[in-house]
Amino acid sequence: MGNNEVYLDLETQDIIGEKELRISVACIFKNGYKVFMENEIESLLDELFSSSLVIGFNLFDFDYKVLGAYTEKDLYKFPTIDMLREIKKVLGFRISLNNLAKANLDKQKLGSGLDAVRFWKEGNIEKLIEYCIRDVEVTKDIYQLGKKQGFLYYIERGSNGEKKKVSVKW
After folding, report:
1. CATH class of the 5-86+109-148 domain in this structure
2. How does pLDDT run across 90-113, given as a tens digit for each residue?
3. Residue 141: alpha-carbon gap to chain centroid
């Protein structure tokens, strides 16, 4: 990993479609884990703008759309690797981060995005932060594994846990 790469994940206060999405927490890995609450988003943006590469999962269709409400700058101009988009280009369909985690790392996320919204609404900020950091950890580990070996495994839908390979070039 280059010193100036950053891994990003964020969670929202509500689910898609309820209202304009606001950030509950954002987490990055850049020389260690860092956590940003909504009132600290300016600091998060500073971290992103000072990075040579932003890496994440579904950044273009989710994270950047939510973050866009907090800045006038064009987030889509960042040098970015959106692993979901890269994998979908090869397979023609989406694979979840949790699918990749189970197939490649023998670990799982700590829940779903719905759980993250529930943690926020219940005021369980500690659990929310733990969830977000785990997503960044899984994202980082998946990215580095794919970069090292040039492929990742995924578990085919409707199979009994059968793993298939997908080529990745990042």
Report:
1. alpha beta
2. 999 999 999 999 999 988 777 776
3. 11
